[in-house]
């Protein structure tokens, strides 16, 4: 058993601020990565997340996950802002950019390292795929470097990744999560977990393709001895061939529909009818959809009013 984590005052304050916000009411977020424009599936998830926040008279934060700089595309953030505004999905407060929060992530990281919660790992991807022959477990790190006490410096031109020694319960679910990658970048799991806590997010709504990330993010929250955030993973939107939309397949974004002459109420109608909130062919604004759902005591599992309590 490791001793309780003692964090410096400024980090305790950040966690406390998050807890206070979370206790004031529902706080949701939409957190796209600027690797390209949003496709309709991303926008459908944004709509669900926005509706859940608004039904509860809560807060909806727009965060941009832009830490993986090589994957960022010029103009992507501007296009997110345009698309959400055009659809009437307005967020609260300033847009949060992860790239402007590096100091926070590195402070938590140093603290975890100082308290012996991390270890250096020199496993490469190819080594891991050899060690994990069973396809199912490939993503779960088997703990190879956990007890090797490897040094933190550069060796053969490579830095180690920094892994969190997760608790017993998480070892099989998430494995020891990499918090800093071997290329020096803060990992998605770490930045995301720190953000949910310090931004006071009460519920994460995201696509079900990210459901497998949850245990890694919960393992980090546990390591920081914080309460868990609630998660809701929503089904992905499929194209006419039944395949999931993806930015990398250049799935159609909003611009293609705007170019065809569609207006915001057409697109909201399209997304809402795809979710079976309204009949096919309906046209309505995001605000009207919200009002309708509030009035109808909607029992749809995606927007159930259970969250309002
Ligand atoms: N930024 C991630 C993405 O666009 C999503 C992060 C999340 O919702 O946890 O895939």
Task: Offer a quick outline of the entry.
This protein is α/β, with parallel strands linked by helices. It has helices at residues 9-23, 40-55, 76-87, 102-114, 125-131, 168-171, 188-198, 214-223, 254-259, 264-274, 286-295, and strands spanning 27-30, 59-64, 96-97, 118-121, 161-164, 178-180, 203-207, 230-234.
Q: What do you see in this structure?
A:
By secondary structure, the protein is an alpha/beta fold. It has 2 domains: 9-101 and 189-295, Rossmann fold, CATH 3.40.50.620; 118-187, no CATH class. The chain has 11 helices and 8 strands. Strands 1-2-3 form a 3-stranded parallel beta sheet, with helices on one face. It has a 3-stranded antiparallel beta sheet with strand order 4-5-6. A two-stranded parallel ribbon has the order 7-8. Helix 2 (40-55) crosses helix 11 (286-295). The longest helix is centred in the N-terminal third of the chain and has 16 residues, at 40-55. The radius of gyration is 21 Å and the shape is globular. The two termini are 37 Å apart. The relative contact order is 0.16. The structure holds glutamic acid. Residues 31-33, 65, 192, 206, 210 line the site of glutamic acid.
